[in-house]
């Protein structure tokens, strides 16, 4: 994943050092911390639309907008939280404070009267937590370490193990025993993640030093071409905009796809046995950790030979895969003529969607983290999540048309949205290769303590 320009890469060797599963030990700590954070986040998300429509009796259109607004806020606050982390708190304190705040918000969700304050609390905690954890990954590796590219895919598996378990545990408990118990379990998951992070702190990289402020250091830093920094910023902005468009389609998974699963998917396996609707939300993360080892192994072999596709080519391929997933649903719904659709087609949709996702979301995260200035790592990673913020707003707006549109037409529209994002990402491949080549040849920016 995320190799530099393929035709300039050279075979390299893995540095020696203590590892777990062939990776630095700190990656396992970050992996497990993120796993439990995602268990809490997706546990709550799996219940959210159903809780609003079935318990709070909010209409589908309004519930879709609330869902989109909450998800967007959760991805907007990292911009502020990342800056706070880089400038004042430091990444480790930001993770701890953010995680504790999120846990409080999940526990608040157990009380209907605290619904809106709870959503805001979770979003605020997420702002500190989300950019500060993955921004520590790059510091675990040397610049030429061939494992560095696939590290974000390994990390992404941790995200999705938590997301896989969440609907099965929180979703099932919420459906069968009460929504408040599902939300409580989500809060306990966040507490578990914090405990792991604190226990494994000795394996994590130190806080990055801040840029020195002396006149001599400023003069030395001025030697770094401003045009290079501008080109990098413009590239990341353009990639973020394309990912925003992509997410307009992708984020329907927890929104209109969940509604469609409940109302128009035949979930009967055998007489008397029907698959709970929240379980289908686990298909995507389950497929992530089943498919990731194959993709990572392939990309690692290609990176060692200098033949790995560039990040933007991968991302364009990923958007195309998601477009094909929605195209499949459009065809199936059209053939069904408004009748119920067998659950096997939904499973096939998730296979295509997940394969595409692995080619775009962890790739994009790695691209932002790798091109980030060392002293602004959390802020730059937060900028990646800004695309998720805007994309979730777009997804919420698009989802509000669900009640007024035939499923086949709606899914065809989502396929068109993802296709558009893929084509635009492909157009950025040339500029991205030039920026990465320039960054690879540039001298490091001088850093020291004040």
Automatic annotation (TrEMBL):
Membrane topology listed for this record: Multi-pass membrane protein
Keyword terms, alphabetized: Cell membrane, Membrane, Peptide transport, Protein transport, Transmembrane, Transmembrane helix, Transport
Main location: membrane
Subcellular location(s) per record: Cell membrane; Membrane
Domain of life: Bacteria
Statement: the UniProt record of this protein carries the keyword Protein biosynthesis: no
PROSITE patterns the record matches: MFS, PTR2_2
Pfam families recorded: PTR2
TM spans (from-to): 65-84, 114-133, 154-174, 180-200, 233-250, 279-300, 312-337, 343-369, 381-402, 408-428
Domain Major facilitator superfamily (MFS) profile, chain residue ranges per copy: 26-433
Family, as annotated: Belongs to the major facilitator superfamily. Proton-dependent oligopeptide transporter (POT/PTR) (TC 2.A.17) family.
NCBIfam families: yjdL_sub1_fam
Protein's name in the database: POT family proton-dependent oligopeptide transporter
Species: Caulobacter ginsengisoli
